[in-house]
Structures are given as C-alpha cells and as structure tokens.
Write a structure and sequence with these properties.
seven-stranded antiparallel beta sheet, three-stranded mixed beta sheet, PH-domain like, 3 domains, alpha+beta, single chain
Length: about 375
C-alpha cells in the first residue's frame, strides 16, 4: 500500500503554495516541506475534507479555525490509502463513491426537469382552473376594467351614444337567454385600425374599429360577440391569464383580494395581447356561441361568413399585421365546416337585426381614423 504522496501546503496566512511530501501513518499524516527542514504532524481527528468528493476536483484537506492550514493532493488515490491505513480516516471521502454521486446528481437533475415539466403542464393549469372557478365575479370585473383601461384609455375610445346603443342592444338580445347571468357585458370600441376583438374577464369585450368596419351586417358582429361572450361565460380568458400570470395574481384571486387587482391589470393586458386560446376553448366558444345566436333568433350565417371572410383575407394578404383576430382565434376550414353543420340544425330567422343603411351608419361610429392608429398596434 502506498503511503507517500506529493502535495502542496498553504499556511492559511498567505496565498503561497509550498511543495510538500506527505506520509500516511495510523493516526495521521506527516508533512515535510521540501524547501526547508520544517516537518509537522496532522492527526486524522483534526482534519476535515473540503474538496475532492466529485470528479475533476483535487483533494483539499484543512486543519484549524478561520485561518486554516490547507493541504492539496492531486491524486485521489491518497484518500483510499488513508482510509485503508487508519480507521480514524473513515470520515474522508471514498473515491469509489464518485460514480454513485454522479449518477445521483444526474438522477436528481432528471427528476427536477420532470418536476418542472409537470408543474408547467399539469399543476399550473390545474391550479389556474381552480382559481378561475372560485374567483369572485367582482374580482374578474375589476381585472377586466384594468385591462380595458390599458387597451382602451378614454382618449382612444369611440364614443357615440346613439350608435353604441345599437351595439349594446345586440349584446342584450344575445344574452337575454343566459341564466344565470353573472356578468354585465360591456362593449368598448377602440379607435384603431387593427382587425381584432378581445374578451377580457368580468364581461368586458374590446372591439377594434378595424374589425367593426369590416363587418357587412349586424349579424356578422353578433357572431363575433357571441363567440367572445362564451369565452367570458366559460372563464376561458380568466383561466388563461392565471395560467400565464405570476403566483401573486393566482393567490390574490383565490383569496378574493379586490384591492390589489388593478396592479395586475397591465400584466393581464400583456397576457391577452399574446394570448392564443387552446383548441378545446375555441371549439366550446364556437359551439355555445352558435347556440346563443340561435336562442336569440339571430341569423347564424353572419358568424360563418365573417370568419370565412377573415380567413380569405389572411390567405390573400399573407398574414397582414393588421389582421390580429385570426392569430388568437384560428379560423380553419374545418372549424367553418363545423359551424355550418351546427347552423343547419336550426331554421334561419326571417328578420335581420338592422337594415344595410342602418348598419353602415352604426359601423361608422369612430369617424375618421386618427393618424397614430393607422399603423399596426397591439
């Protein structure tokens, strides 16, 4: 068994390394500095190992208090020799366990990755679903109002009481059959050329003038609103915000903290700006939105033709940045076919919501498009 080893010694007071020879005994190690005749003895009971348990590390032994002496040994075989020579060296690391430690570390890393993936894809959505189901309506209304204030500050809103009343009447007819009716639906028209509509928590729906002006009938807008109303009623938006937002939002929601809601309005608005509903939520809003139109006696063809029109526009213009609606509400041929199948289940109403001239008047609610709204915005 090898008992003599090369090492480097540090006295703890300076950074100088001194070459040394080390001899293992039954009770400790003899250290001889090669540059002088100095020799000293370290008992195993006073030695602590601070480095050398992992691959790539040299062995580092220390002795003493704050200004400890240090012994550095490059060959990890030194540890095995010391343990074999003396039972008092049993506290030193066994090199044979390095492989076990590497495997344990790798396994812990895999477990951590699996846990993170599980939290992201399972725990957070589940927690968000619980929060969305239990959050008070008053909390949703406050959050929705804060989001509307971000998307549509008063200076960017289109306000014409007579024309707005026509749009509100469409919403009232749409939601007349909803029981129970937990929300008061509020439609805000934003003076921006973006073709988009956004459902916010608490009954708030934001419609950008770009979308309003592309409708050819009140029934087309009713189809969009029916879809967005169902996102609100099913709390799809609230759940999505909770899923992507911070834990602070989730905890505030679960305890019903209304006072702190406004602080999360901007975060919720940013989430909605990039939000894409999952396929199940879109299908649910399609199906129940169609049912809402049928129960309200509104021609469902408007919903289908408007989505089809946007889909064709997207194909022809190669993803025009102004057409934001299709990015958050993907309108595929399959979905349109499904909507047609649902529409066929009920007869079409004989009366229209508004005549063509009346609707052209309503959709001009915003007047001239302001210069700062002609370019794409979120």
């Amino acid at each position: 068994m090898r008992l003599d080893w090369d090492a480097a010694y540090l006295d703890g007071r300076t950074a100088a390394r001194r070459p040394a020879s080390v001899h293992i005994t039954r009770t400790g190690i003899d250290i001889a500095l090669r540059e002088s005749a100095t020799r000293f003895f370290w008992p195993f009971r006073e030695i602590r190992q601070t480095q050398g348990a992992y691959a790539g590390e040299q062995v580092r032994l220390e002795r003493g208090g704050d200004l400890a002496e240090v012994l550095l040994v490059g060959d990890i075989g030194f540890l095995s020799a010391a343990r074999a020579a003396s039972p008092e060296a049993a506290h030193l690391h066994e090199p044979g366990r390095r492989r076990f430690r590497v495997g344990l570390t790798f396994g812990a890393l895999l477990a951590a990755v699996a846990l993170a993936v599980g939290i992201y894809y399972v725990a957070i959505p589940a927690f968000a679903g619980v929060a969305a189901a239990r959050v008070p309506v008053a909390w949703e209304e406050k959050l929705g109002a804060a989001i509307v204030d971000h998307f549509a500050p008063p200076s960017r809103r289109c306000e014409d009481p007579a024309r707005q009343a026509r749009i509100d009447a469409i919403v009232a007819q749409l939601t007349a059959s909803v029981q129970p009716r937990p929300y008061t639906f509020r439609i805000t028209i934003v003076n921006s050329g973006i073709v988009n509509a956004v459902a916010a928590p608490g009954g708030h729906i934001i419609v950008f003038r770009g979308l309003l002006e592309r409708t050819d009938s009140a029934e087309e807008l009713a189809g969009v609103l029916a879809h967005e109303v169902q996102h609100v009623l099913h709390r799809h938006v609230t759940r999505a915000i909770f899923q992507q937002a911070s834990t602070g939002v989730l905890m505030a929601a679960l305890v019903g903290d209304v006072s702190g809601v406004v602080a999360y309005g901007l975060q919720g608005a940013r989430t909605l700006g990039d939000l894409q509903m999952n396929r199940a939520a879109e299908s649910e809003a399609d199906r129940d939105g169609m049912r809402l139109l049928q129960e309200a006696g509104i021609d469902t063809e408007g919903m289908i033709t408007f989505f089809d029109k946007l889909s064709k526009y997207e194909r022809e213009h190669g993803g025009d940045s102004l057409t934001r609606y299709l990015r958050s509400h993907p309108t595929t041929a399959e979905r349109i076919a499904t909507l047609r199948g649902l529409a066929a289940a009920a007869p079409r109403p004989e009366r229209r919501l508004l005549g063509e001239d009346d609707w052209n008047n309503v959709k001009s609610l915003c007047g001239e498009l302001p210069e700062d709204s002609r370019s794409p915005q979120r």
